[in-house]
Design brief:
Elements lengths: L9 E7 L3 H14 L1 E2 L17 E7 L16 E8 H11 L4 E9 L3 E9 L2
Antiparallel strand pairs: 1-3, 1-4, 2-3, 4-6, 5-6
């Protein structure tokens, strides 16, 4: 996604290979804080078989609605954030209200970055 396709305040979040319940927990925590392109009753779907699953949602971080509460996961979750530098950092700091967050990788661009995080229970 190029910066022309994505306003500065939007961050795409991709959760890779986690359980459906954990994806729902992470997206629910983020939905508490930010507006999203997904309705509140939208549940991540499992894909049958052994193929990898990636769940995605886009969040508008221009206005924090509320800080998420600590949220339980069944296992650590890997999340990739993609967007403008300030927007990604803002979303990462908000995730820290719900989870223990460790940065495990970054890829920097001119106007945007991708950050890979490991989310664990607090």
């Amino acid at each position: 996604m190029s910066s022309a396709d994505q306003p500065e305040s939007q961050v795409m979040v991709a959760l890779n290979g986690n359980s459906r319940a954990d994806a729902h927990a992470v997206f629910g925590a983020l939905r508490t804080a930010f507006a999203t392109d997904r309705p509140a009753d939208d549940l991540p779907e499992d894909v049958p078989g052994d193929r990898p699953t990636v769940w995605t949602a886009t969040f508008d971080v221009s206005d924090v609605q509320a800080q998420p509460e600590p949220t339980r996961l069944t296992a650590p979750v890997t999340a990739s954030l993609h967007g403008g530098y300030a927007a990604v950092d803002h979303l990462r700091r908000t995730l820290a209200a719900a989870f223990t967050v460790r940065v495990v990788g970054t890829a920097a661009g001119d106007q945007e970055e991708e950050v890979q995080l490991r989310l664990e229970n607090r």
